[in-house]
């Protein structure tokens, strides 16, 4: 009896901690959402209040959507994020496979070298990156952003995926070799499907910083045609006057695409766990 | 078709020599079993034959053709793994057919070979299922089917029964023996279980520490072990080893006698001893004895016998059943 009560308090405390953390994380998002639907006065007079009948106002959204460029900004963000994730997953998984599968001289060193990227922020190299982009004529292109984000995402991808690939049974890969599969088929057809949950994890970890990034779009691709959503929202923030309705509405809208991507990946993640494909 | 030759095959990982020079001839149609304790190099040797590992030196030929530089898929082998190693995302049928498909075999041919193999292994009902929907025994049959479909020169089995429970193990063992009779194919089989080795093999290769200790038929190994290792490894319960000096035998260092070659009597015999433990197995009774003259030893009696702990008994070795070994552990013949 006492044991049951003990575990009840324990699960209760765990849940309390988790709920607390969830509230802290969700609250700013909630605040953004409710205020994006209020008129300007209501935002300042009573920022914590949910929109009432009198204060409800979609002026922020009409401003944002009325500015024709925002569709382009969304498109830019989406292209950059999706292409970067695809490249990070592809190259990260390939590097991870090589590191975990083959014994070659310098294997350990190569792994460490790739892992260093996790610890050193890529922004330290901004000046050199900008010079490089200017030299190659890639400034103000989405390619510049994709390249930088791919480089930024690969270290973590290699680190996580190589750990997972070590757990894929050697016998399975050897069975493939005996059946005449090439190393590429073994990688794409046997190993990748088995590490899908890890791929989804990496995709989520890679996606969010890219979507939210302000730094590189501002430096490498600030032109009107290549602006991302995060950068585009800045036009509403002025030195003296800030159009809070529009800023909050833009940020609220920016949540949607990333939420969709997240649901796609997390479904993959759950499917990977529950399929019980291995053994 | 289906002979194998190994000539002074060696393998080292860094500074560690795993296989220290193996010479072996396998004739067409033979069932050869590599047996030995874990870490003796038997699996590594099998993987070298398969081409999954490169030998550090030495030559391997299949059907008289040197295969050191031939990739596994082109060596004309098929392998069955301990962990089944079925492709989780393919159906049973596709699992069995993948190797042929990769080799560019026509569809009709694949179909007929898969049918034949699934018939042989009674897998017909499961062809459309995925590995996750099969039991352990069925999975191992699919893995064997995948090997049969390829119609290889050499079948390689890497401890195929270790993941199965005891009853299934016996059934699958019979199945493999039947397959060998029907296919008349050359098979090389790795196990650490001497019962599997004794029951299946035409020829057993006993390995220890990367060296072949003895090659012979099961009965040769049982009746004429070449050294102390083989004598102790083959047979269960293990052979009793007695210091030759205690028995007054001058021309040997160690004397070996199998537990089943000792007779037990309550009244008289050569070695007086006290029972320290008795195991009643129904078909057998195993008596563990402690004697002043020869030390600790085991006796295996057939049928039921009513000995109890602390009984004083006399053991007598059967005539001509003593194995003599010299100071290096080699058998004296």
Automatic annotation (TrEMBL), chain A:
CDD domains: TM_PBP2. PROSITE patterns: ABC_TM1 (PS50928). It is found in: Cell membrane. The chain crosses the membrane at residues 12-34, 78-99, 111-130, 142-165, 186-211, 246-265. Residues 74-265 form the ABC transmembrane type-1 domain. InterPro entries: MetI-like, MetI-like_sf. It is a multi-pass membrane protein. This is Carbohydrate ABC transporter permease. It comes from Shinella lacus.
UniProtKB/TrEMBL annotation, chain B:
PROSITE patterns: ABC_TRANSPORTER_1 (PS00211), ABC_TRANSPORTER_2 (PS50893). Signal peptide: none annotated. Keywords: ATP-binding, Nucleotide-binding, Transport. It is found in: Cell inner membrane. Transmembrane segments: none annotated. One of its GO terms (molecular function) is ATP binding. Belongs to the ABC transporter superfamily. This is ATP-binding cassette domain-containing protein. It comes from Shinella lacus. Coiled coil: none annotated. PANTHER family: MALTODEXTRIN IMPORT ATP-BINDING PROTEIN MSMX (PTHR43875), MALTOSE_MALTODEXTRIN IMPORT ATP-BINDING PROTEIN MALK (PTHR43875:SF3). InterPro entries: AAA+_ATPase, ABC_transporter-like_ATP-bd, ABC_transporter-like_CS, ABC_transpr_MalK-like, ABC_transpr_MalK/UgpC-like, Mo/tungstate-bd_C_term_dom, NA-bd_OB-fold, P-loop_NTPase. It is a peripheral membrane protein. Residues 4-234 form the ABC transporter domain.
